[in-house]
Design goal:
297 residues, alpha+beta, 5-stranded antiparallel β-sheet, 3 helices, 30% strand
C-alpha cells in the first residue's frame, strides 16, 4: 500500500470515529415551558401572599401626612399587627366582611392604611380616636372626650423644594435657606395623646377643616386624621368629597406604617437607570414612623 493510500485509509477511519462519537452525544434537552410557567406562577403567588399577610411597600402620593411623610416617600407597611381582614389582600376585590382574624385594636397615634367604604385605593392616616371616644375639632385643636389634646408649637419643618414637593400649594411658605437651597417652611405643632405618645402636625391657619363634630365613635370603629390638618381628606371629610366619611370600621384597616425605605424627588425616569439614583433624597431612608413617647426623648 502506498503512502497516499495509507493517508486516505487513516482519514476514513478518523471520519468514522467522529461519526460514532457524534452518535453517542445526547440530544439537546427541550425547554420545559410548562414548568417555567408553573415556576413563575408560584413565585408571583408567594409575593402576593407576603404582601397580603406580612408586609408590603407603600408610596406616598400626596402632602396629607406632612411634615413626617412627604410625596415620593416609599415605606414598609406591616399587615399582621392588627390581624387580617377583607382589605388585607394586595388587590381590594372582596366585599365588606365583618370581623378580623386575630384582630387587635390600633393605638392612638399609629399611622395606618385604610380603604374607604366602596373604594379600592389605600389611604394613609393617623389614628386619633378609638371606639367610645368623642371627637371634636375646634379652631384646628382636637378635643378628645371634651379635653383638648395638648399641643406645642415647634420649629418650622424646612422641607426641600423639588419636583415632588414644589410648594406651589403654599407659595407664601417658600423660602431660601442659609445654604442657598429653596425650602417649604411648614409651621409645625407637636400633638400629644393622653397616653403620652406624640407626633408632629402641620397647621396652615384657618380652614373649613378646623371645625368638626362632636361625634362619638361607634364600637369597632376608628377616627383617622392626616398630619397636614388643613389638607387631608380624612374622617372629617365626606365620602363624596374623597374623604373617609366619618369614623371607619376596624375591618377597613389594612396595616401599620413602620419605616421609610427610600424617597424620590420626582425627577427619576424609568428608562434612565442613572436617574433612579440621582433622584434619591438623602437622609430619609430608615426613618421610623411610630409616635414618640414623652419622657423617652
Amino acid at each position: 500500500m502506498s503512502d497516499s493510500d495509507e493517508r486516505l485509509a487513516a482519514a476514513l477511519r478518523a471520519s468514522e470515529d467522529c461519526a460514532a462519537a457524534s452518535d453517542d452525544t445526547p440530544e439537546r434537552k427541550q425547554t420545559d415551558w410548562w414548568g417555567e410557567i408553573k415556576g413563575i406562577f408560584w413565585l408571583v403567588l408567594a409575593v402576593l401572599a407576603f404582601h397580603s399577610f406580612v408586609a408590603k411597600p407603600f408610596y406616598i402620593p400626596s402632602e396629607s401626612m406632612m411634615p413626617g411623610l412627604i410625596q415620593g416617600d416609599r415605606l414598609v407597611v406591616t399587615k399582621y399587627p392588627y390581624g387580617w381582614s377583607y382589605v388585607s389582600p394586595s388587590f381590594h376585590v372582596l366585599p365588606f366582611i365583618e370581623g378580623r382574624l386575630f384582630g387587635r385594636m390600633p393605638e392612638r397615634g399609629d399611622i395606618v392604611i385604610t380603604v374607604p367604604r366602596g373604594g379600592r385605593s389605600d389611604y394613609i392616616k393617623r389614628v386619633i380616636g378609638l371606639p367610645g371616644d368623642t371627637i371634636e375639632v375646634r379652631g384646628g385643636a382636637v378635643f378628645l372626650n371634651g379635653t383638648p389634646l395638648r399641643r406645642e408649637q415647634r420649629e418650622p419643618a424646612m422641607i426641600p423644594i423639588d419636583a415632588n414637593v414644589p410648594c406651589s400649594d403654599f407659595p407664601a411658605l417658600a423660602t431660601t435657606g442659609s445654604d442657598g437651597r429653596r425650602y417649604c417652611r411648614m409651621p409645625v405643632y407637636r400633638e400629644y395623646t393622653p397616653e403620652g405618645r406624640y407626633y408632629d402636625t402641620v397647621d396652615l391657619g384657618p380652614s373649613p377643616a378646623d371645625y368638626y363634630g362632636p361625634v362619638t365613635i361607634p364600637a369597632d370603629h376608628l377616627f383617622l386624621m392626616g398630619d397636614n390638618r388643613d389638607q387631608s381628606a380624612d374622617s372629617r371629610a365626606p365620602l363624596v368629597g374623597g374623604g373617609l366619611g366619618g369614623p371607619v370600621p376596624v375591618e377597613s384597616i389594612g396595616g401599620r406604617a413602620e419605616f421609610i425605605t427610600f424617597s424620590l424627588d420626582g425627577t427619576s425616569q424609568w428608562y434612565n437607570p442613572i436617574s433612579w439614583f440621582s433622584a434619591m433624597r438623602s437622609g430619609r431612608a430608615g426613618t421610623g414612623l411610630h409616635p414618640g413617647r414623652a419622657g423617652a426623648e
